[in-house]
Task: structure prediction
Amino acid sequence: MAEQVLLGDEAIALGAIHAGLSNAYGYPGTPSSEIMGYLIDYSKKTGKIHAGWCSNEKTAYEDALGVSMAGKRTMVTTKHVGLNVAADPFINSALLKINGGVVVVVADDPGMHSSQDEQDSRFYADYAKVPCFEPVNQQEAYEMMGEAFEFSEKYNIPVMMRIVTRLAHSRAVVDTKEERAQNKKKKTDDATSWMLLPLYARRQWDRLLLKYDEFSKKSEDSKYNQLYINPDFKKYGIITTGLGKNYYIENLPELSVKPSHLHIGFYPYPAEKIKKLAAHVEKIIVIEEGYPFIEQKLRGILKQPVIIEGKLDNKIQPTGELNPDNVRPVLGLAERKGLAAVEKLPGRPPQLCQGCSHVDSYNFIKEALSGYSESIVTSDIGCYALGAMPPYSAIESIVCMGACIGNAKGAAEAGLKPAVAVIGDSTFYHSGMTALVDAVSANTPMTLIILDNGTVAMTGGQETILPSSQLESVIKGLGVNPEHIKTVVPIAKNHDENVKILKEELEYEGLSVVLSVRECIENIKRRLKKERSE
Amino acid sequence: MKFDVVLAGVGGQGVLSLAAIIATGAMKDNLKVRQSEVHGMAQRGGAVLAHLRISDSEIASDLVPKGAASLVLSMEPLESLRYVDFLSPEGSIVTASEPFINIPNYPETETIYEKIRKFKNHKIVDSVALAKKAGSARAANMVIIGAASGILPVSKESLKAAIVELFLSKGKEVADANIKAFELGAE
Result:
């Protein structure tokens, strides 16, 4: 046993290493990025594991399945919306006979600190019939990784670990254990359980439903699903999930009695324990970090014998993150007051860094587009999304990774002109390439501008899957007419020339691609610092 | 004993290393610590907030409840005012005096100081000048820790040990300048 101060993300990474992890894959995304960051550092230092970024979460998940076929333990790291991208292999993999343990760690972002939605990944686990562990602190996160791998191999099923921003990015002391040896290579000997031909898939689906019944039984005994009954107090009881437990415990000293309490940290949920609690109390208060997943199940459609309070009746705010204060009203506790807030403070939203190449890019994009009355500029996920804010106000859509290319294509095909899509290099590799092939096929009159800063900047400067030097050949390889692939350097000195080049392409009645290439300023700083220290 | 700190500043000012040093120091004093930070988009030149909770017993929530904080520790005067609703009536504000102006509507600095001075317990520290005096302009955040060291429930020895630990890899000179900055802040 040794004590270490770890970020929640790091606790998960170390928990996986100590559980005999062999291979890890992922795509950067706040708040999950530091898991893979830790694993890549460990891999470079020790050479004991393979850890690497992938083009996107789908390819990451598929790599992991290959590792499982070879019998080794593997994990995938993603933010919540990344699981949408990996949903196809994720949901189908529940039907496979997992060989080496597979754990997918999904970091949800209630409150949308760095995301476009606050979807709750427990619904995915439920939908796929995949068991899900949800830690409440760094210690549990560390320990659950080992149990998740054991579970995965015992039941031949992928397992989800659901965390949230507040756990991912909080530090606390973690007690660590002995390292388990990695699995030896042992290829699956059951090929028909890995080929989802309808013939085999029907059989696997039946098997999954049987397995799921077993998971439900296991859930009743799970140490993460603890039920406390206060025999003398029947007025109400509490169900917590995730960090809801911490905020409940924080306020517990102020309650006059300690109510009966069920915490759920392993799914499928323990139905018998929930029934036992419901039989004991008149009302159940459900405090969940995320969507009201359990609460919705409890309410069902028909009238309930027990009163249920939570997010669906607005007793707890249905959006955003829980905190020690917003769970108080439902517990019957008065609002806590601090000192009066200072009024009329100007906000300080995030902004593009001093010297950021995107500033110069947006300057020439805006000028080239001025004078057009029916233009559209679609954009995407990354630092350059800050181009939405004044003084740039340069973009008009941000949906999901890679969406801007299809958005611009559709808009162009519906008559908007000029149609421009602005995307970063990493986002392009993640989900932009297939959409560009569509535009090549249709020779859509639109201009794709790739802001190539050579890094995944927003999430902390991870390496883009391919270096800048290869981007142009990738674009050519996808079939874009080389005469309409232009490369510019976004610096103030080149502004007029860049405006001219872009204007020409905006007038072209077909597909053009402008590569705006200059290294991320933060990346330069990091690179120079690293070079100095070497 | 429970001691909650809300740390504030602007992305890139070293707010997280401020939190890390106090947390390390607290653990050297055998206290329990939980520290919550902000990564990702918010860090790009925006307002940065970190919660640090120190206690001699288990801490459940990573987040500080409203009205519970004993201290707002800030690398920037405007930011020091943003989270005062976390402060308890006896709580203190300790802030660097140097404004970080990257927004068009930044108020007059003197107006901000006046608002800070309205709080019963406050300290506005010229951390940049003291850091330069200590030999490293980049050690302003160590001045701020020093300035708060009389309020924090962590011994000065442990805070200094944490500073040395963090900077030793950068050479003795850097570590010494940071310790000196801490001491000037503590005076």
Q: What stands out?
A: Chain B touches chain A through 50 residues (CB under 8 Å). Residues 46 and 103 of chain B are 10 Å apart (CA to CA).
